[in-house]
Model the fold of this input.
Amino acid sequence: MRIAIFASGSGSNFEALMRDDVIRPEVKLLVCDKPGAKVLERADQFELPSFVFSASDFLNKASCEKKILEELRAREVDFIVLAGYMRLLGETLLEAFPNRIINLHPSLLPLFPGKDAIGQALSAREKVTGVTAHFVDAGMDTGTVIAQERVEILPEENKAQLEERIHQVEHRFYPAVVKKMMQKESEKRNEKSID
Done:
């Protein structure tokens, strides 16, 4: 699989993916919608090319995604991994990569989709939350679930402490999910070559 990682922020999940010796050679591009984001420094450390843009430079989402698609096709990318990418994808990318875009979300979906899932879980006085890897569709965190892992919410735990523990789980969980997807893809290709 030739992978592009999309990220908007500090890039700790991006780095967890890139530190994996199986995943790193397959990652061909970082796509970032925030010029100056810390994830770009991390990409430079791995000598990974980046495509950086501001959505405000484009007339609309479709024209923006057409440009992203050009960058992905130039590198023959066939799989997209969202790692803290804070934009909803539109039909241009969704149609070009059906069932080939995955996302990581810090809750046990379908509970607490959207922004501030950790804060939502605390406000709801949940005893357990977690992380979910899912396929991306046109909705907000509504795609088919691939895998989940539960995280207990400790008594008296504040949001920053829970965020830190969830990040630790994500940094182990997401690379494992991506590697499973790569393995499935490899098995599919082997079956086709035998046929």
Q: What stands out?
A: The CA atoms of residues 61 and 90 lie 7 Å apart. The chain has one domain: 3-194. The radius of gyration is 17 Å.
